[in-house]
Amino acid sequence: MSELTVAQRAAGAEIAIDRAPYFPRRKKMITGRSIAVLVFLSICALFFAVPLYVVVVTSFKTMAQIREGAIFAPPSMWTLEAWDYAWNQACSGINCNGLKVGFWNSVAILFPSLVLSIALSMVTGYALALWNVRWAGPFLFLLFICAFVPFQIIMFPLISMTSTLKVYGSIWGVALVHSVLSMPVLTLIFRNYYKDVPQEILSAAIMDSGSFWRIFFEIIVPMSGNILIVILILQITSVWNDYLIGVTFGGFNAQPMTVNLANLITISTGTVAYNQNMAAALLTAIPPLVIYFLVGKLFVQGITAGAIKG
Amino acid sequence: MALRWSRLSPQLALTPALAVTAVAFVGAIGWTIYLSFTRSRRLPEYTIDWSEWGRQYSRLFRDDAWMISLRNLITLGLGSALAIVFGFVLAAMIDKEKRGESLFRTVFLYPLAVSLIVTGAAWRWMFNPDMGIENFLHQIGLTGLNFSWLAHADTAMYGIILASVWQSSGFYMALMLAGLKSINSEIWSAAKLDGVPLWRLYIEIVIPMMKFTFITCAILLSLGVIKAYDVIVAMTNGGPGQSTYVPAYFTIQALSSSGNLGYASAAAVMMLVITAVVFLPLVLLTAWQQRRRAEAVK
Amino acid sequence: MSRKLLTGLAAGLMLGTASTGAMATDLVIYHSWSAPPEVAALNVLRAGLEEKGHSWTDIAIPHDTGSNVNLMSLVTGGQPPNVFMESNPGVYRDLAGMGLGLPLTQWFEENNVVENLPTSVAAAISVDGEIVKVPTALHIDGMVYYNMEVAEAAGVDPTAWTSFEDMFADFETIRAAGYDPVAVGSQPFQVGYLMHALTAAVAGPDVYSAIYGSEVDPAALDDPAFRQTLETLRLFANEAGPAAQNRPWNETTNEVISGRALMQVHGDWMKGEWLAADKVPGTDFGCMQIPGGKAVVVTVDAWGLLGGVPEDVQQAELDFASVVVDPEVQGAFAAEKGSTPVRLDAPADSLDACSQEVLEILGDPAHQVQNPHNTADADWQDSIWDVVFNFWSDPNMTVDDAIAQMKENYDTILG
Amino acid sequence: MPRVSFEHITKTYGHLTVLDDLNLAIEDGDFLVLLGPSGCGKTTLLNLLAGLLDVTDGRIVIGDRDVTDLDPKDRGLAMVFQSYALYPTKTVRGNLKFGLVSSKLPADEIERRVAWAAKLLQIEPLLDRKPAQLSGGQRQRVAIGRALVKNVGVFLFDEPLSNLDAKLRTEMRMEIKRLHDELNHTVVYVTHDQIEAMTMATKIAVMNAGVIQQFGTPDEIYERPANLFVAGFIGSPAMNLRKAKLSLANGRTEAIFGSGIRLDVSDYDFSARPEDGAEIIAGLRPEHFGTPDGSVEGAAGVFNVPVQYAERTGPDASAYFRFEDELLALRIDPAIASALAPGQAVSVGFLRGKANLFDARTGQRM
């Protein structure tokens, strides 16, 4: 719907431009209010952008310049040294192979986490929303409560459980814990979204096929574009940015990048090398940032399309 | 009634989730509750001395750090609520003033992509009195200004609030933007015809219409606040003193530094109780609301 | 360079025969060290271990990243490391209870290690009468390290101080010269260490043992000397500016190295930072014990070995232990880390002016007490840290408040 | 052959009983319309037949198979939904094929059927479009096509025309009627629109409050409504229903209204012997009146009533008169309608033999 109006507006604007030379018409005035709003928004944008700006310029500075203390000044000499150090040489304990080790761990954790958590919660949400299961109501309520359970309360038992399953301290263990912990919230989001699939479409599909899985793969999954974008973004950022689960369940082979980063920031070579810290922080933040800058628009669209609601 | 596959397959499909819930949540919570009655230290101990089963809890309520944690939880909750207000204001402005919509949206949203560990590093550096903003302000002559909030017990929480508002406002803005877009566009025209000033329209019509969006935001925010941990580690590590302790941090601290599993479990259980106290009304309200909506449809 | 080569050679020769038949084993080594001198010291051990044909898998979780839970998580999670840096006797008791303890008394005797250890070290590595730890470094928790250049510029002579009164009396002079008298870091760990070092120095070994020992006597909390300790701590806290908040110890050390502050009172691992900055003990910086101190707190960093493992793994763990306690390795290790060797027979050329000072102090058994991590209940010890850090951070908190809180904690935790 | 019968069907939701011991049977090739106001249970009945809901008690038989416990797809049915329920992510072709692929038909047979249905419904050019690119009428055709390709004996329609505009609705009505005439399937069609029912059905079941009020051909339903509900529900403007008393004096049977006006119903085909003085309700269809102020010769009764207002709907017109504090509706010639002035009193006769009489106590036809 809104797409159409955007397109219409765009079309309208084009016509107006075409005609402008012949029919000079009163331009839409920028009102005082518009200016005030734009100024306010710009100031807010500044507030939001400043930390990123500071981090970026700092990561390209030399320590000598940082010590001068001009936090907002651009680098007098751009250097990639700090980046190189953070990626290739930063130490985590005795190993000085840089953040790249943790980066690949994070990648390795990310994919199984995404597949497991999305597969589990998508199917569950679909079954709860569209199929008539007698105990769906109580189960839904239980999930709702689970969504609010703080991690701390189940942390210790989960350690024992992953240990029993022999996955503690492995990529799979971390991915499994991520999937388990995110399952209630993701399920609720999927369920809310699927609740809006017209009952008649499901009825039609039941009459046509009757197969739970065929309907899921052929009808429901193709309809899940909006919600999948939102879930993917949420889940990628939360898994990638997680620290506590990684440090608790990563053992000694599967520590994600955030743990390396925290180690790096804590390890200091006499005086803190802020440029290295900031470069490391940026390196850690780049993957989710890229995703946001690329598909942030779809994220808002997905939410607008009903991905998250009360 | 005959057994039908169409009836069975959804139930089978729900089994994994049910098993996960039963084991990882219900079972684990039960386990933790049990541990909170024991005197477990570094390792679990399964004997309960019934004459003093509540000792961990009574200690908790005499522990100043726990009281600080609770107080900070409220402070953080109230402070972070600014993120919702801020998010709404931003969303309303972006929605009305279409110019630069995508640019502003991206800028407001990006902090969400950044982990709190990174956020903490950035903000701590900006709060650093020698090299951060304070130094900058002093250099340009504003020597009276004090920006080293994290260094003082009475202002450290504000630093944390600032960082978390910075981080989460964009998310609430996105939710609000979605809520605003779902409002019938005729309302704006109607208000224009009636000559209703914009601010009254927002307060009397738009905000009440968006109450579910607000409730959703409030739920998500409270969740974030109760679970707040990373931001504390990244910004202050609980200091100065114990002035920025929050329950989640307290719990981990009790487990790791004090090596007291029983005590940590009791704190965790109290976190659950807090969660229940905060959310049960909300959960019931939502359930009731959904039922009413469902009935309205019939 | 040659020293390292020699170390490796010696280690290789000494145990080469023993290990030729042994299988190469990968040891998982857990520690919390992260500062560059600490890492350099670990690399000395790694070189020694690799000489013996084993490999080193490192798992490091630095202090104060909120995850000290890790060792016990690893154990609970069924992935216990083979070697772990741990002082807390409770952990050893837990491990023994789980069948994962490895008693070392016999091994120590067979290898003639015990007779070469200072008494305080020998005491620190036993739990319930059984040796279970492998000592790796010896430190004194409260030493005064000062920048000699700054001392000269400010016109003060730290060696002339015989008491805290003398020391604080000079602060005005130092400040007038444009230097901070003392650099502190407002971090629970630094304040906690400063507190127990001050307790030993100001209140003496008896009060110290009554509070930080394995048997706690709450009456000691009311001892006037303990009150005086807290008052002294307050004087240090007054020196903490906003910049000190959350400042790691080694950054704090750098305040002194770079000449912004005169001195730092902290564990003598500070020396590693000085050496890393190419400063020479006795020339660029001076080290001394707390003026007028009644006792010093000795920290023995030690490794625990995992028991209940296959024969070949256990042999590898013992190989690791033999590397750690090897006199040559000890010398090299201490030189990198800035510690004092745990063996009295470590090569003399590895001892700098500060280490000699430390060994001299350790000559008097009555003048030393143990780091509370070796003896005290972790919960109780942690509660003291909480109280003193709150006391440190809140100028309005009185000594009475602090003592009252400690008593209450005692009743809750140990009462 | 697919004869469809409902036997003792009961459906309850918790304490709420929607259908209670309902029985209904139609023959092969019948076009059954379930007609009733919303909430009457007609859609529930349809969903029970489709298998989308489970019966609480009773039996559903299609042909000679008891389908009560079968899955929807195994019942040999096809259904067209109110909102068309097209799969939004599939093309028209994909929509048509979806139900066939799972029935494991050979590929060329599937293609053949899709082509046949597309030709029949004239949607061949649309086959590769997505539903979002279709107009309402086109979607409707696709929805019907999706049912047709399944080649089953029974078709179910759930208010399929209610989302179309008036013109399209008429067109599609004809279309569905034509398809039924051509293919001669059994159809069960749910609607609340009596025009659809009257034009398409071979059998109508009028439902209210979960009960079938009358089951019969359209003519039977219109001419001889079984009770007050059916009488009032069918017809537009609705039948005028007025209280009256029966009088059996003078060898004549007359209905006497409150105002004294008499209506001769001597030729009425009473199902039971009427009693003198019985309370009745007389049903007078608007089209069974004579011309206002025209000849009243041979009329069963004459009403002298003031005009309230008249309205024209193009070819037709209705006039409303004030009669005993209520409105009396008449269908009249549009030309006359314009001549009627409000307040003007006219006399109008009611045709002999056209009245419907109902027992005032039971509401049943007498």
TrEMBL record, chain A:
List the keywords (alphabetical).
Answer: Membrane, Transmembrane, Transmembrane helix, Transport
What's its membrane topology?
Multi-pass membrane protein
Query: Where does it reside?
Result: Cell membrane
Question: Which Pfam family is one of those matched by this entry?
Answer: BPD_transp_1
Using the record's annotation, list all stretches that form the ABC transmembrane type-1 domain.
103-295
- What InterPro entries does the record tag this protein with? MetI-like (IPR000515), MetI-like_sf (IPR035906)
Q: Where are the transmembrane segments?
A: 35-56, 109-131, 138-159, 171-194, 215-236, 278-300
| Keyword rRNA processing among UniProt keywords | no
Q: Which family does it belong to?
A: Belongs to the binding-protein-dependent transport system permease family.
Question: What protein am I looking at?
Answer: Sugar ABC transporter permease
Q: What is the lineage of its organism?
A: Bacteria, Pseudomonadati, Pseudomonadota, Alphaproteobacteria, Hyphomicrobiales
From TrEMBL, chain B:
Which subcellular locations apply to this protein?
Answer: Cell membrane
Which controlled-vocabulary keywords does the entry list? Cell membrane, Membrane, Transmembrane, Transmembrane helix, Transport
Membrane-topology annotation of the record = Multi-pass membrane protein
Listed Pfam families: BPD_transp_1
Which residues are listed as membrane-spanning?
12-34, 73-94, 106-126, 156-180, 201-226, 263-288
Residue ranges occupied by any ABC transmembrane type-1 domain in the UniProt entry: 69-282
The name this protein goes by in its record: ABC transporter permease
- Native species: Devosia nitrariae
UniProtKB/TrEMBL annotation, chain C:
Q: Which residues form the signal peptide?
A: 1-24
According to the UniProt entry, the coiled-coil residues are: none
Which SUPFAM superfamilies does the record cross-reference, listed alphabetically?
Periplasmic binding protein-like II
Q: Do you know which Pfam families this protein is assigned to?
A: SBP_bac_1 (PF01547)
Keywords in alphabetical order, please: Periplasm, Signal, Sugar transport, Transport
Q: Where in the cell is it found?
A: Periplasm
State what this protein does. Part of a binding-protein-dependent transport system for a sugar.
Family, as annotated: Belongs to the bacterial solute-binding protein 1 family.
Q: What is this protein called?
A: Probable sugar-binding periplasmic protein
Organism the protein comes from:
Devosia nitrariae
UniProtKB/TrEMBL annotation, chain D:
**Alphabetic keyword roster:** ATP-binding, Nucleotide-binding, Transport
The ABC transporter domain sits at: 4-234
Signal peptide residue numbers = none
Q: Which domain of life is it from?
A: Bacteria
Tell me, what is one Gene Ontology molecular-function annotation carried by this entry?
Answer: ATP binding
Family per similarity comment = Belongs to the ABC transporter superfamily.
Record's protein name:
ABC transporter ATP-binding protein
Q: Which Pfam families match?
A: ABC_tran, OB_MalK
